[in-house]
Amino acid sequence: MSRSRALAPVVAFVVLAVVVAVLPSFVSAFRAQQLAYVAIYLVALLGLNILTGYTGQISLGHGAFMAIGGYTTAILMTDHGVKDVWTIPLAGLVAGIVGFLFGIPALRLSGLYLALATFAVAVSMPAVIKRFEGFTGGGGGINLFGVPELTASLTPVTVLGRELTFNDWIYYLCWTIALVGYVVAWLLVRGRTGRAFRAVRDSESAAQSAGVSLASYKTLAFGVSAAYAGVAGSLFAIATTFVNPDTFPVALSILLLVGVVVGGLGSLAGLIAGAVFIQFLPIWSQEVSKSPGAPAVVSGVVLIALMFVLPMGFAGLVDRLRALTKR
Amino acid sequence: MSRKIAFALSALVLTFATGVTAAFAGPTRGSTDPGVTSTSILLGTTSPLSGVASAYASVARGADAYFKYVNGRGGVNGRKILDTIVDDAYNPALTVQATRQLVEQDKVFAVFNGLGTEQNLAVRDYLNAQKVPQLFAASGATAFGSETAKYPYTIGLQPSYQAEGWVLGKYLARTQGATKVAVLFQNDDYGADLLNGFKKGIERSRVRIAAAQPYEVTASDVQAQIAKLRSSGANVFAVFATPKFAIQAYVYANKLGWKPKLSLTNAVSSASNVMQLASEGGTNKVVEGSVSIVFLKDPTDPSWKNDAAMRLYRSIMKRYAPSANVDDVYHVYGMAAAWTAVEALRRAGKDLTRDGLVKVVANMNFTGNPFLLPGIGLRTGPGDHFPIEQMVLQRWHKGTWKSFGGIWGYRTA
Hints:
The complex is a heterodimer. Chain A is mainly α. Helix content of chain A is 75%, strand content 3%. In chain A, the strands form 2 sheets. Chain A has a two-stranded antiparallel ribbon. Chain A has a two-stranded antiparallel sheet with strand order 2-3. In chain A, helix 8 crosses helix 10. The longest helix of chain A has 27 residues, at 214-240. Chain A is globular and about 55 Å long. The relative contact order of chain A is 0.18. Chain B is of the alpha/beta class. Chain B contains 13 helices and 13 strands. In chain B, the strands form 4 sheets. In chain B, strands 2-1-3-4 form a 4-stranded parallel β-sheet, with helices on both faces. Chain B has a 4-stranded parallel β-sheet with strand order 6-5-7-8, with helices on both faces. In chain B, strands 9-12-13 form a 3-stranded antiparallel β-sheet. Chain B starts with a helix and ends with a strand. Chains A and B meet through helix 1, helix 2, helix 5, strand 3 and helix 7 of A and helix 1, strand 2, helix 3 and helix 4 of B.
């Protein structure tokens, strides 16, 4: 019994991996490209959930960490001739270090004050990027399409004996990283570190009296979370083949928080639904109506309705269904 | 424990190997170009239907109404024009995704009049690599008209911002003698193009720039900049901004009691509704007498009240976009673009290909676009993808624009 319980998540994960792996054979190349963005958002949500869902630190500025990752990739590719895939870990590292450093002053802030501070980072990021125009290309941004360092943009790439077009290549790249990131996040939150994170979230004073160092676990959560966002930003830049300050707007940071809440705070599996939600909601709401302002209203109504129906996000839905079957 | 993880990871790698093997190879390309059938031509447009810049959505709405009007009269060479409009919320990352959707999923023949400078820059390399025409990019950035060798499939429409700045500068140089100008400009390529053109226009004249203050497009207001400009002692106020900031600039200048003898403003922020807001019910003296440039017929300008083209404009709007604000000049802009597209498609002939269309728009000499001011033509040639390079000055007087003087021309390329 206990052994099968322990195996259940592994089985579920393998099923997910199989579905992800064969899906491109059944959908158009364009749809595969859209699904790649789901993987990108999943990476960002995994990171944000470690910080917000598990450690209880609200961040309204994860779009800024994505921007750091995206620009790291774009600058390395165009100015230093680094192949796109090698920039991904570097982007994660750079964003992770920045996140870790940001975590130090953030120790003094809690709750709403931290939310405001991170929001300020997201708001100021586009202006900061424009300020260093020689480095970042300013408002015009950096174009990656057709750059030789970008895999498969002009000619298909051969992986394991198969030719992949750009869309399929991006799909597999993003999902491979997302699934590896998922396993890493799962390992992190299920063990000792995860327990410490949750203890910090539930009661800081209780955690402290149990010997959990608030400073080290909060900064660790910030660092790990920002590293995830950096990887997501890097993939975003590669998939979009373009970065400019407006590709990482304040709205992106808010959208990520929406994704985490819709997926379910403090859960990993629900985040997949959260990522699907933030990628496809704007597209679906456009199909409802294209009159001025209408898509935004549709998105808002759906979101409010969802919070009423699924107060704990999609993860809560899974728990509820499980409770129903047990009865 | 670690064995379980090793198992999971190896399963992952395995499934990927099969998945990659199963994924099918690249798309096949037929003999004729996508998006054209014997009865239809499919175009695609990215537009900010939502978000901060949604006021510009009127451009796509005006164009769409004109296409419907043309279709009602039999279309072009027997084909109806269908225009798919996709929202990008003015975010270049979404423009990229929306454009891929148009090209790869909807399989459009050409991208038409996508809106925004950064938005068009973000997809320019992609569209040229796919050999999809990027027709009449709705931006005055010089990049869209001058880099024709690298981007043969890209073509602009309106006068470049540089040309606009030059005309305003030259007007000052010719009419004002010794003057000191205070400039407010947006801190991006858009503002820089306007300012550089202006500087070229006042070269070798007695007009000097006393102060130039930038603002960020993400800023909340420009009060500090206006205060600095006022203290520069300049007697001409030049506003090179986007609508929201232009309104603020005028309102703050008035509040601070600044009385420049003349204000200049660029076309993007000089739509009548913007000026009416800025004029604070006609009480703002900084707005009165402002000079700007124009190349479209403004629906609020009384001189076009009985003009045949503007009567047609109003009837098209009434029929195909009944809920829209007919006074919004962006609709006229959209129709002027749509007229140009229809004319180009007509000349590209019955045997329509992407390369054939590009050849037509790269060697345009169209006259008679009814939505442009009389005498303004659409001309392009080798190395010059700026269709409109002529404009007229206009002056704001008691709640409306009034054009004056002859046609000004400037070749950016």
